[in-house]
Design brief:
Oligomer: single chain
Helix content: 25-40%
Order of helices and strands: HHHEEHEEEHEEHEHEEHHHEHHE
CATH class of the largest domain: Alpha Beta
Number of strands: 12
Number of domains: 2
Number of helices: 12
CATH topology of the largest domain: Rossmann fold
Bound molecules: flavin-adenine dinucleotide
Strand order of the largest sheet: 4-3-6-1-2-5
Length: 340
Amino acid sequence: MLSKSSRLWYRNVRRKKTIKQKRLHALQGREDKKKAGFSIYFFLDDDLSSTTYSISPRVFVASKLLSTELSGPNSKLLKIAAPPSFLAAQQSTDGFDSIWSVCIKDDDIQVERAYTPLTGVDGDGNLLFWIKKYPKGEVGRWLHSKIPGDSIEMRGPLKTWRWEEGAYDEVVMISGGTGITPFIQLFNRVILKTTPTSHTRFTLLHSSRLPEELPPPVLLDPLTRFSKANPDKFKFHVFVDDKGGSISPPHVPPLKEGRITEKDLKSCLGLEKHQNAWWTRFFGKTAPQDETPRRILFLVCGPEAMVGTIAGPYGRNLSQGPVGGILGSMGYSSDQVYKM
Ligand SMILES: Cc1cc2nc3c(=O)[nH]c(=O)nc-3n(C[C@H](O)[C@H](O)[C@H](O)COP(=O)(O)OP(=O)(O)OC[C@H]3O[C@@H](n4cnc5c(N)ncnc54)[C@H](O)[C@@H]3O)c2cc1C
């Protein structure tokens, strides 16, 4: 989910929890933690809080909420001015080279959660977030209650995953719900900007529960348009658990109903046609599925249950754990699968 160094730091901070904090921690429901997608759920010591501008990802800096917009039954788009330290450090700090997130702190109860700026720092020096509110999720509910002009404290950048130009022939991103946010950042910061000599092909398979829970048009429209204009470079597939009789909205490719399955993955990788080929029917066995070895990487981000189904559960202490689930049964190894 986050880089090893960030996880180690979280562990050190965790050790510093006071007894009072531990009691509060115990009150948080496990289900709630799962729903919010982050097992990182802790309280910071006061000495780590600061309003001075520093680029240390450990130090909170204050910034201003610029706008909020309802974008679904329980989600909002929030625009926050990037702290000046982010703007100054963008050129020199390597955290920004990666897919990165920030931790936002609920000031009232000193709980933080990580969120992904969808375009990184945009041209106007702002950070745009798509944030879901859960009935028992403290930071999401707190953020949804904020109005333009309110102060928001955040720290970052926190490296989520490092993109390496030329390292992969094929990158397949699989997301559920707000788990699409790191992939929208990857789209905006890498896929849209890759050079004509870049041969990496990208595929995004996204699933939401209902059509009205899909990310809003302002986020999906650019992906849909780019995939139509560049089908060899970027493929985009959208799933909903239940179409509810509605037709596909115009800002997405035709909706597929049901969860993402092995068949969907095979078809997006072009493996299905091999299995239906004449030699399979004639000899009764599958031909080599991938004649030219391709350097392929699967990135998975979504609710824990989905990550488990697609790629196997996380390991202990937020580690990757072995590859399991659908990708495990397809024979992919741990250097080909990354659980965000
Ligand atoms: C690196 C990272 C960055 C994040 N950034 C943000 C952010 O910026 N904003 C934010 O709000 N959250 C963020 N999160 C939190 C995270 O995305 C969500 O908490 C998590 O994805 C839950 O999403 P949801 O509730 O929207 O999913 P749901 O709406 O509950 O589910 C989405 C889909 O997942 C599929 N699914 C569910 N269960 C299964 C299963 N058992 N098998 C197969 N498929 C299943 C279904 O198709 C469903 O439609 C981030 C998480 C990570 C790891």
